[in-house]
């Protein structure tokens, strides 16, 4: 690109001529780029406007943050607007409009600081952003005089709060379907996982007699607070409709550990809703966390995840019968991923080879959630 083309692109990048769509409590709109017919109608001289300094980001949520800054008193009375350049950290084209994507240049009327920036169309949970600010004054001809850009600061949006997770929970409950009985939890692995002296059993202890919790991967919703943080062991409990037994196929390996359900889920176990997602298929997954009361996992989940009624929920229930025995049910129309937060002794169950196929395409390891699915997405993002 020649010097002339670069200069023309820079001029186009400076033309800010329309605002639309109010968002947030402070009437914070996002700015749409509209190219001018005249190459001479640039933004006016803003030399007398103060430059924002010492940018402070606070009160960060999964889809909002507050921003404030200091500035010299000179020229403050002329400020009518603030310009905010918000970019994902990995985006190298800073200060460029995105004509085919969500705009990242924002404009707001000058309001008392700190100012809330809110909007699910340009903010995603657990995502790193860079932000810079200009002060501006709107001129009679509709153009803006602007200050120089402030320093660039970085911040990361937060995980889903219990508010967003409860929204996901309601969506999951709507499709869970009727409850089916089951009696065992199971976990499939490769043969080497269950063999002593194997390099493949990283989530086993030195004596190879216990399965140990490991950190959950980043599969599922981008904002889920358990991804990359909660330690646990994955189990399944879904059964085949026609047999009432676990399926003979698995994406995780041909060897299966089975354990009686009451050894992991009983009156001393708390249950939490962890996530709801799909992977560009018609199948939907629900993550339920089982944590013995007072355990490290239980303490982690309190306040972060919606608690489920152990005996009365739409996904995974444990009920006491009249004779004192426990009965268990799972949702029919979703695939349950159960995370048990404590070590499990292999001697408490059995290991055997399944007769079905290893369907790798069904693996959820680091699977990305479909952000366009209307069934399992909420307004604040993936």
Automatic annotation (TrEMBL):
One of its GO terms (cellular component) is cytoplasm. It comes from Gambusia affinis (Western mosquitofish). Residues 51-160 form the Fibronectin type-III domain. Belongs to the PHYHIP family. This is Fibronectin type-III domain-containing protein. InterPro entries: FN3_dom, FN3_sf, Ig-like_fold, PHYHIP/PHYHIPL, PHYIP/PHIPL_C. Pfam families: fn3, PHYHIP_C. Gene3D superfamilies: Immunoglobulins (2.60.40.10). May play a role in the development of the central system.
């Amino acid at each position: 690109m020649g010097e002339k083309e670069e200069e023309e692109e820079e001029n186009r990048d400076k033309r800010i001529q329309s605002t639309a769509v109010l968002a947030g409590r402070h009437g914070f709109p996002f700015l749409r780029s509209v190219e001018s017919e005249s190459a001479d109608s640039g933004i006016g001289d803003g030399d007398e406007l103060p430059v924002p300094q010492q940018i402070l980001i606070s009160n960060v949520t999964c889809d909002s943050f507050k921003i404030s800054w200091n500035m010299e008193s000179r020229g403050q009375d002329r400020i009518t607007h603030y310009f905010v350049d918000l970019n994902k950290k990995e985006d190298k084209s800073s200060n460029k409009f995105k004509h085919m994507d969500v705009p990242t240049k924002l404009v707001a009327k000058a309001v008392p600081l700190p100012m809330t920036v809110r909007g699910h169309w340009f903010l995603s949970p657990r995502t790193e952003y860079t932000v810079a600010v200009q002060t501006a004054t709107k001129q009679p001809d509709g153009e803006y005089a602007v200050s120089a850009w402030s320093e660039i600061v970085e911040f990361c949006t937060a995980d889903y709060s219990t508010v967003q997770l409860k929204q996901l929970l309601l969506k999951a409950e709507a499709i869970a379907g009727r409850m089916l009985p089951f009696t065992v939890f199971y976990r499939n692995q490769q043969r080497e996982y269950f063999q002593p002296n194997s390099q493949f059993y990283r989530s086993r202890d030195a004596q190879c007699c216990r399965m140990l919790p490991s950190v959950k991967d980043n599969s599922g919703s981008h904002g889920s607070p358990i991804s990359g943080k909660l330690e646990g062991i994955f189990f399944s409990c879904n059964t085949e409709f026609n047999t009432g037994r676990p399926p003979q196929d698995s994406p995780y390996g041909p060897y299966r550990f089975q354990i009686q359900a009451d050894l992991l889920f009983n009156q001393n176990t708390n249950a939490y809703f962890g996530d709801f997602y799909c992977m560009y298929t018609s199948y939907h997954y629900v993550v339920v966390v089982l944590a013995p009361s007072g355990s490290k996992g239980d303490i982690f989940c309190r306040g972060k995840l919606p608690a489920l009624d152990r005996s009365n929920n739409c996904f995974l229930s444990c009920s006491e019968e009249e004779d004192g025995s426990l009965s268990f049910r799972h949702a029919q129309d979703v695939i349950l991923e159960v995370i048990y937060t404590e070590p499990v002794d292999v001697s408490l169950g059995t290991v055997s080879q399944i007769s079905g196929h290893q369907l790798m395409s069904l693996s959820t390891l680091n699977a990305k959630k479909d952000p366009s699915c209307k069934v399992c997405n909420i307004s604040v993002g993936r």
